[in-house]
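HUMAN: Ready with one sample?

ASSISTANT:
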Amino acid sequence: MDMQRWCLISMRFLVRLVGNMVGLWLAAEWIPGVQVIEGEETWQTWAYLAVIAAILTAVGSLVRPLIKVIAFPLYILTFGLFSLITNVIVLQLAAWASRTVGVPISFDSWGATFLAATLVAIISAIIVGILGRATK
């Protein structure tokens, strides 16, 4: 792989990471039932959010295509609304992975997870739409 292609892939990953990080932060601030570990100082909290966002971005990049292939009939039957459930599954997998790393994010209920996954997806899509144009 040439250097230019590698830089483009890295920039796209970083843009998605920033989108997920901001979305997770807003979800933790706005949605009751979503808890992210907080550091003693602000930069530590942002570092924890960056680790969780990196895990979420990696899980989303690796697992989401597999779920889309397996659940293709459900996407057709629900006119694409199954993507909301896919977001919840990916967020729960990322939460499990982040707990194993020692940077926990937790959800009190399925509803809180659903709202958080939806908010993260919307915020991430907006940020990727704005910042992603520079990476093309």
In short: Residues 29 and 35 are 9 Å apart (CA to CA). The two ends are 17 Å apart (CA to CA).
